[in-house]
Each structure stands twice: as C-alpha cells, then as structure tokens.
Amino acid sequence: MEQDFVSSRIIFLLKFMLLNKCIHTVIFGRYHGTTGELIPVWLEPLILLIIFHAYCLVSNIFGTEIVFLNSFQNILRELKDVGPDVMCLQEVQADHYETHLYPSLNEAGFEGVYKQKTRQAMGISGKVDGCAIFWKKSKFHLVESYSIEFNELAQRQCQVLGMNPRSEEGAAYLNRLSRDNVAQLIVLEFAQPSSGRNSARDQNQVCIANTHLYSNKDFPDVKLWQTWQLLQELETFVLSRNLPLMICGDFNSTPDTAVYDLLSRSSVHPGHPDVNMNEEVSVLPDVRSLIHSFQLGSVNATVLREEPEHTNYTVGFKGVLDYMWFSAQHLRPLTSAPIPDESVLKKHGEALPSTQFSSDHIMLISDMQLGGPRS
Questions:
Q1: What is the pLDDT of residues 360-375, one digit of tens each?
Q2: How many CB atoms lie within 10 A of CB 279?
Q3: Separation of alpha carbons 113 and 134, rounded Å
Q4: How far is CA 66 from CA 18, 71, 147, in A?
C-alpha cells in the first residue's frame, strides 16, 4: 500500500527591502499521497514558512520614515498574496517590530516571538535589530520557544576550555567570538492534526530554527563556530524527539566555505582554508570535533543538483548566502523554482534592489514533502 505522504510547498528567501529589509519565505502544504491533490487546510494542516531579513537603518534624512512605511505596506501586500503560515524574520529593528510589524501581522491572524541581538549600546533606544518568527494562529499552536545568544555560548565555551574570561587569553577568545548574533528555535504543532493514519512517521510537530550569522567575510572561523554551536544546540533538543527540522537563514557563507561543508557533509575537511587560518586567536576546536549527527540537505542543491549562482545580487557582491536546510529523514524537497538570470535581474538597474525586485536577495521556491523520501 502506498504511504500517504505529506508534502509542503516552500517559498524561501523572499527578501523585500524595508530600507535594507528583506523577507525569506517558505511554504509547507499537504498533498494526498495517492492522487497528488492538495488537501484543503480545514482537512489537513498547511505550513508556510517565511524568513524576513529586515535591517533598518537609523537616519535623520527627510522622508526616511515615509520610505519605510511605503516599503512596509508593499511587504504586507506581498505577504498577503503569498498567504504564509509561518514567518521567520531576520534583522528586524526592535521598535519597528513593536510599532509596525507585530500589530500588522497580529491583525492579519499571526502570533509571534522576537529576539533582539545582544548589542547593549547602539545609540538610540529600539534601533537594535533581531530575529522574529510568526505563525498563523489558525494553523499552529506554539509548543516551545527558545532563543540562542552566541555571545552566551562563547562565554560558556570559554569556561569549558578552562580559560579565565578576565585573562588575556580568555578576553581575546571572547572578543573574537562575541558578535551579538542570535538564533531562534520554536516547535509548532498543527492546530488540526492529521487523522486516520497510524504510521510512526506521521508528525504533528515541526521544529524551525532561524538565524543570521556574522557578516564579515574576514571572519570565516567565527561563522563556522556559530554554525557548529547552533548544530550542537539543535542536536540536544531535536534528535531525541525525532522532530522534523528546518534550519533557515542568511548564513553569510558561500558554498565553498567550511560552514556549507559542515551543514551539508556533517564534517569539515582538515585542509579547508577556513580551519587553517593564521589568526593570533584560535577559536575553533580540533577539526575532528566539527561534526554533527543530522542528515541535512539543501533544498536547491537537492532539487537542482547544485546551488544557484546567486541568492544575493548587489553591486559589491553576487553569490549565494541564503539557504534552507531540512532533515532528510523527515522532509523531501520536490521542486525548486529557477532563479532569474542576470538579464532579468539587471533589467531595471545594475543590481538589486530595483523597482522590479524589492530586495537584494532572490526568492527561492520549492515544494517539500513531510515524511521523507519514499522507500
């Protein structure tokens, strides 16, 4: 008898500018395993995950607030057109979350959680950015919500290594790693769980991780350390419970980096340049410890057999920084939309954002199947 799989449509990395604000989108939906028809949401749960990359600049230039409000309204219209069920947002300015984002999305039927970056002194109150996750209240119940501060993990690791944080060695270690980045972890449960199926592979809960790693290209060791620590935290939380997992975000790392290798291959080659840096401060463990127990796949690499040429297209940089990773034993990507070629991206300017593309990042679209690959 053919197993009744659950499939999900994913629109990921839909990034729209709010000044420098962007949205990533992921949609999950369920399809009948035999007919292939979309099961209506009132019969089976539907998930849509959006990652919203929204960095707000602080400026006194006349008209900035008007530009923000206009961009924000454009984003809300786009969100309504897409019809998301879950949204993971990055670089959301704290005051904009409180005054614009949360009220608007809550009115549209969403609940959310927010985690501000750990910067303490940024001048004007409320101008520190952070991450947020929203979910459709009619589709999901929030079961658990946690936040991860990489600064705190660095302090903990410093103690594990036996270093005094006040010593020269400990201070240098913490100074290298303390970059204020954060991550979020939530567990959502379908408000209307699937019925009539007894398979152990059926899942009514999904774990979503949302992060934005350090951006400086000269600190690949820090980004690798952050990724390793995030995966360790997720291992502790997810593996024993056998939860479907998606890790989404802006990893600020191209496919040739050790960050990508660790996520995709569960390890890093000892000869990789990112683990052989000649820095005065060494923050990485022995390369043999840079491992994890997940079987993760990249949606684009799985469906298209390779990553696209770019997900970020600016004057200064054109390449892939954004990914959606999934636990292969629980989820299966079915399709992935092609990325527009350069002739399309440059039609209204030499780079993004433009009048046609509201962000400097490209929207990625895929269909996901909850239940993993067919056996």
A1: 777 776 666 777 665 4
A2: 13
A3: 7
A4: 11, 9, 32
